[in-house]
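[Discussion] Sanity-checking designs against the backbone

I'm trying to build intuition for which residues belong where. Below is a structure token string of 265 positions. I'd appreciate it if someone posts a full sequence so I can compare it with mine line by line.
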């Protein structure tokens, strides 16, 4: 597998740019909706391109319906060849099957990525691989990635911290993705600052960001601003707004509104 390359996301989180190893046909598993091209050496009348049906089968000349869903291409080749032999149609068939459209094994990447969409899992792909296919995490993206998986009629949700994966090297969190998984990159949490600061507005909350760091993000105080009486407007668990007298080492939370007062002297 090629080495995963990283570039820094503004300004904290590293974006992931990586590629998985080269895919081979034997690594694929056929599924409903896949389009396959099949040829039989020296038997051009048996060549065809077809789609795997909703019941997981293809219709092949002479032998009829062949169930291929869940089989690797090599296994499907052997199954078709065996049916041709057992039916007495071809003595020693050399069957070649190529997947031309991989519809069944796709993963959806949504949210704050540069190229959201559906991507084929043409090989074993990890979470970082798929984020790379989607162009990496966008500027507004956060550290948190949610992976939704459906199996046995149940949907499970797993939240991955990209900082743990990249900085701490937690490869267990770098999930191997399956067909129909959904990857959602959350927007980075933000805070608001207004009043007597140089650059009032909305800013990204960095990990463990303090009030003092938030003031620095806003460009610092104006000449009329005062460090005394800093206030944070914050919604509690019930949604009610509370006003907090802020200290420099207090941590900033998502959607906090920081107000810098004007000096009275």
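Best answer:
Here's mine. Compare freely.
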């Amino acid at each position: 597998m090629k080495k995963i390359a990283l570039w820094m996301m503004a300004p904290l989180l590293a974006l992931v740019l990586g590629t998985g190893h080269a895919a081979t046909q034997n690594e694929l598993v056929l599924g409903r909706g896949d389009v396959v091209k099949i040829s039989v050496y020296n038997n051009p009348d048996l060549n065809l391109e077809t789609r795997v049906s909703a019941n997981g089968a293809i219709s092949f000349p002479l032998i009829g319906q062949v169930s291929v869903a869940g089989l690797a291409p090599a296994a499907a080749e052997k199954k078709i060849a065996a049916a041709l032999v057992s039916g007495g149609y071809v003595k020693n068939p050399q069957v070649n099957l190529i997947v031309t459209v991989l519809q069944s094994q796709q993963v959806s990447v949504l949210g704050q990525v540069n190229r959201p969409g559906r991507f084929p899992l043409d090989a074993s792909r990890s979470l970082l691989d798929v984020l790379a296919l989607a162009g990496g995490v966008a500027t507004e993206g956060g550290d948190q990635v949610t992976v939704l998986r459906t199996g046995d009629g149940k949907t499970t949700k797993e939240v991955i911290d990209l900082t743990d994966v990249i900085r701490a090297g937690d490869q267990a969190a770098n999930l191997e993705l399956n067909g129909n998984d959904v990857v959602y990159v959350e927007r980075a949490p933000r805070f608001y600052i207004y009043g007597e600061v140089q650059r009032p507005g909305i800013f990204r909350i960095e990990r463990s960001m303090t009030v003092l760091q938030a003031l620095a993000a806003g460009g610092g105080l104006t000449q009329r601003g005062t460090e005394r009486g800093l206030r944070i407007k914050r919604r509690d668990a019930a949604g009610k707004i509370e006003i907090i007298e802020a200290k420099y080492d207090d941590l900033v939370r998502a959607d906090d509104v920081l107000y810098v007062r004007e000096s009275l002297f």
